[in-house]
Amino acid sequence: MDKRSKYILLMDIVPADECRYKFHNSRWMVAGKADPEMPKRMYIHPDSPATGEHWMAKGANFHKLKLTNNISDKHGFVSFSFVLCRLVAQLFAKCFEFLQFQ
């Protein structure tokens, strides 16, 4: 990572498979086919864009990330359906055109 270049840190949540799950008897069990995929909303880290020096010095956390299964959410929460998901942190997508983000 270049200290002077600007980077955006973002997170997207994608389904791990095409099944719906429920928590039963202290474990997750398949409960049918998943609902159709909801509109995607990527979460951009609030410090973005920032220099490589910033990210290397401070690191990043996602404690302000809010999740919902409400597709009509108007609060900017990241929507997901109740399937087991894997987090895909698309770390440090380089800002080639930083002026767009000011």
What does it look like?
The chain has 102 residues and is mainly beta. The protein has a single domain, classed as Transcription factor, T-box (Immunoglobulin-like), CATH 2.60.40.820. The protein contains 1 helix and 8 strands, in the order βββββαβββ. It has one helix at residues 52-58; strands at 6-15, 19-24, 27-33, 43-44, 50-51, 67-68, 78-79, 85-94. Strands 1, 4, 5 and 8 form a 4-stranded antiparallel β-sheet that branches. A two-stranded antiparallel ribbon has the order 2-3. A hairpin with a 2-residue loop joins β2 (19-24) and β3. The longest helix has 7 residues, at 52-58. The chain is elongated. Residues 82-102 have low confidence and may be disordered. Its main location: nucleus. GO terms for molecular function: DNA-binding transcription factor activity, RNA polymerase II-specific; RNA polymerase II cis-regulatory region sequence-specific DNA binding. One of its GO terms (biological process) is positive regulation of DNA-templated transcription. Keywords: DNA-binding, Nucleus, Transcription, Transcription regulation. This is T-box domain-containing protein.
